[in-house]
Amino acid sequence: xxxxxxxxxxxxxxxxxxxxxxxxxxxxxxxxxxxxxxxxxxxxxxxxxxxxxxxxxxxxxxxxxxxxxxxxxxxxxxxxxxxxxxxxxxxxxxxxxxxxxxxxxxxxxxxxxxxxxxxxxxxxxxxxxxxxxxxxxxxxxxxxxxxxxxxxxxxxxxxxxxxxxxxxxxxxxxxxxxxxxxxxxxxxxxxxxxx
Length: 195
Fold this sequence. Notes:
Number of strands: 8
CATH topology of the domain at 2-119: Jelly Rolls
Structural class: alpha+beta
Shape: globular
Order of helices and strands: HHEEEEEEHEEHHHHH
Largest sheet: 4 strands, antiparallel
Helix content: 40-55%
Distance between the termini: 43 Å
Strand content: 15-25%
CATH architecture of the domain at 2-119: Sandwich
Number of helices: 8
Strand order of the largest sheet: 1-8-3-6
């Protein structure tokens, strides 16, 4: 089932033969992690690229004042890794932690490089996926600088309705770049306007 979800994900980006799909998913190993468990700790080298088949993970860093800053969440059908650490095999600046019991498919750095050599279509597939991911990341940065906190909140709910059930108010506020108290104010204001 897990590999079927990954095959489906790959097929959304590129028209692939069944043989190509089988070759692409073959190196991925299933890993289950419990809520609260770390997949990666800041300072360690990210030796995997992961595809989430169930659950939800929080990718975060810690500010100089000790406050956690949520960078993004990864739910079902999402990729998770510390890209700089994975690509350059250097210490991670991020923590990756399960906020719900989760199952992932993982591929190592060496396996990914071998996949590029063994399956010619792999480089094109991952290039297309990376371009889409970078475009989405850019949209998020632009929205962070141009939308109000309330607009960012509403956009998050509309875009990621399945993630919201796993996320605490504190985590969501951190992701939105606001305090938990201000998130409560926004929710009350939206609730009153809907009456």
